[in-house]
Every structure is written in C-alpha cells, then in structure tokens.
Amino acid sequence: MVTKGLAVAIGRDDQLEEAGMHADDRVTCWAHQTWAADCADRHAPLTVSRLLAETLETDRIRYRSDGVATSS
C-alpha cells in the first residue's frame, strides 16, 4: 500500500533522478512502489551473464518476429 509519505518520496526521487541523480541513490523503488530498503533483495545484481542472457533472448524474439521459421 502506498502511503502519502511514500507517494511524496517517490515523486521527489523521480524529480531528482530527472535532474541527474543516479538511480542507485533513490530511497524509493519505482518498480515496486515501496521503500528501496524494503525490496533491495528483490533486485538481481547486474552481471555479465544476465546481460548476455537478455541479449540472447532479445535476439531470439527479434528472429522469431521477423517471420523466420524456427525448429521445434
């Protein structure tokens, strides 16, 4: 549940981020609409393996959407 204080803090973080603050410096989590400390364990750290997996998945989706036949 988003409280009034949390809503104000999210808005403030949004404004600060637009002004150049790094997203890691937020005290709120925009994705989960909660305090950053409450969902820190819900965010997987960025690794080379994750980037590679995301890139391969994006390529697979693009390949399929281009109408290229795929094998089952």
Strand order of the largest sheet: 1-2
Outline the low-pLDDT stretches. none
* Terminal-residue CA separation: 44 Å
From the alpha carbons, calculate the radius of gyration and give it in angstroms. 18 Å
Topology:
Blueprint: H1 4-18, E1 28-29, E2 34-35, H2 48-65
Antiparallel strand pairs: 1-2
Task: Explain this structure.
The protein is mainly alpha-helical and 72 residues long. It has 2 helices and 2 strands. A hairpin with a 4-residue loop joins strand 1 and strand 2. It is elongated. The termini are far apart. The model has no long low-confidence stretch (mean pLDDT 87).
Summarize the structure.
The protein has helices at 4-18, 48-65; strands spanning 28-29, 34-35. It has a two-stranded antiparallel ribbon with strand order 1-2.
